[in-house]
Amino acid sequence: MSNLPNCPKCNSEYTYEDGSLLICPECAHEWTLESGLDHTESAKIVKDANGNVLNDGDTVTVIKDLKVKGSSSVLKIGTKVKNIRLVDGDHDIDCKIDGFGAMKLKSEFVKKV
Q: Would 12 be classed as within a structural domain?
């Protein structure tokens, strides 16, 4: 039995070594044992409009009125958004807003509280 760690991305126990890399056959995640960093993706740092680093679970406020796509309503300036989740893509914040439901926001239109 091997002493290789489980995959940090999907927690699979079926990791294997390929040279200096550890590879997960289930999700194709690659990393090194020394650094623990991903070699296929760089760690993206998401910053708000003021340059503060955002993390999962942060609370932010909207800094300008935003039109809601597919609706006639507007997300007003100063709307507080709790417990954000950071995701990859053009709209890098995934959240639920009271009165609006699930939404995706761009980090450039929010500030950290």
A: yes
Which CATH number is 72's domain given? 2.30.30.40
Q: Which two tokens stand for residue 51?
A: 């340059």
Residue 6 has what DSSP assignment?
P
* CA proximity to 49, closest of 29, 64, 34, 65: 64
Count up the domains in the chain and report the number. 2
Q: Taking residues 86-108, what's their average pLDDT?
A: 92
Q: For the whole model, what pTM was predicted?
A: 0.61
Q: Examine residue 53 and state whether it is found in any structural domain, yes or no.
A: no
What b/e readout covers 80-93, taking b as 16+ CB neighbours within 10 angstroms? ebeebebeeeeebb
